[in-house]
Amino acid sequence: TNNLLQHMQQVEYRLSLFNRFMLAALGSAFITPGPFSIFRSSVVRELAGWRHGHSTEDMEMALRIQHEGHLIANCPNAIVYTSTPPTLRKLFKQRVRWTYGFLRNAVDYRHMVGSRQYGNLGVMILPTALLSIATAIYFFVRALTEFAQQSVDTYTRIAVTESLPRFHFELFYLNTSAMWVLVWLAVALILVLISAGGWIGTGSKRLPVGTPLFVVFYCFLVPLWLATAVFRATFKLGVRWR
């Protein structure tokens, strides 16, 4: 029986279905799903076998395959069963490892980033993936800063007026700053992509039951593991499976 955290991961996997489908369509898949990836043994031998890959050997192999001119295909209709982390601690550790592995492998294959020689992967996908990490951390810090400022303003208003503010919702007072407009657009886009991923993989556009929790909870959780991975990658602290 899945708990709430695993239901949220089910939503995330729907999103990843769309992402991998689009990466393969662009001929630029650099991540292969651990539960069900098939490699041609001749290609693996040609590339001199597996490497440690900063605890993400599948990602390193995928980048090396693309580096040597091979392509990675995607089969979105394949039925695969996998186990997901049942606790927040295990999930956080897994995602830090994934992000850390991507960052360190991106450093190892930095000559591919921005290079036309590697097609969409070099020109668009790798730069966008790196930029998305920085963007997620930036918006998270901005949101925390604004929340802290509003909290201070509210406390000051209460202290001066000696009365509690009356909370009511009016569209006229809705925050329409550029940052929040971008946040709401990002949430809308994520919902569309989750639905698209379900349609690609299962033929159903219905959003999973864990979608609201995923949108709210992951908004806070993802930037934390991204920032942790960036810190560990910057200082080469390493990560471990266990």
Major sheet: none
| H and E order | HHHHHHH
Which of globular, elongated, flat, extended, rod-shaped describes the shape? globular
Low-pLDDT windows of residues: none
Secondary structure class reads: mainly alpha
Question: Considering DSSP H and I runs of 4 or more, what fraction of the residues is helical?
Answer: 55-70%
Fraction of residues in β-strands: under 5%
Number of strands: 0
**Averaged pLDDT:** 90
Termini separation comes to 24 Å
The tally of helices reads 7
Radius of gyration: 21 Å
Write a structural description.
By secondary structure, the protein is mostly helical. It has helices at about 5-25, 40-45, 55-65, 90-110, 120-160, 180-200, 210-235. Helix 1 crosses helix 6 (about 180-200) and helix 1 (about 5-25) packs across helix 7 (about 210-235). It is globular and about 75 Å long. The chain starts with a helix and ends in an 8-residue tail after the last helix. The model has no long low-confidence stretch (mean pLDDT about 90).
